[in-house]
Amino acid sequence: MKYFGTDGIRRIANTELTPDLVYKVAKAGAYVLAKHSKNGAPTILIGRDTRISGTLIESAMTAGFLSYGANVKLLGVVPTPGVAYLTKKLKADASVVISASHNKYDFNGIKYFSNKGMKIPDSLEEE
């Protein structure tokens, strides 16, 4: 099954986008980022919007990243462009935005940014 769409993963929160799936996506992400990080353990920022499911997904993402030894910095509620900016400004290896933008309230999503504050390359996403 393909999880990533054009711009990350978007599903109905806690039904299709379960904490277990989010944990696995984060753990896999930390594994891939560690392979490409100069420092070994990657530093990953997490920002989210105000959707009620955001804290659940944030907790599962944090657990997944930490389980692979990544360093995690929580940004709290912040707009997507703010996460992109802070990724580059704070020299993080990557970041994640938890948001489903224009989708209905019961959806949520995960979008990875590279260390340049841009969408991660397709090749890295596939890995």
Q: What gyration radius follows from the Cα positions, in whole Å?
A: 13 Å
| Continuous helix count | 4
**Helix share of residues?**
25-40%
Task: Label the structural class.
Answer: alpha/beta
Largest sheet: 5 strands, mixed
Order of helices and strands: EHEHEHEEH
Which term fits the overall shape?
A: globular
Strand order of the largest sheet: 1-5-4-2-3
Strand content: 15-25%
Low-confidence stretches: 1-6
Tags for this model:
127 residues, 5 strands, 5-stranded mixed beta sheet, alpha/beta, disordered N terminus, 37% helix
Describe it for me?
- By secondary structure, this protein is an alpha/beta fold.
- Helices cover 37% and strands 23% of the residues.
- The protein has helices at 19-36, 54-67, 80-89, 122-126, and strands spanning 9-12, 43-48, 71-77, 94-98, 107-113.
- Strands 1-5-4-2-3 form a 5-stranded mixed sheet, sandwiched between helices.
- A hairpin with an 8-residue loop joins β4 (94-98) and β5.
- α1 packs across α2 (54-67).
- The longest helix is centred in the first third of the chain and has 18 residues, at 19-36.
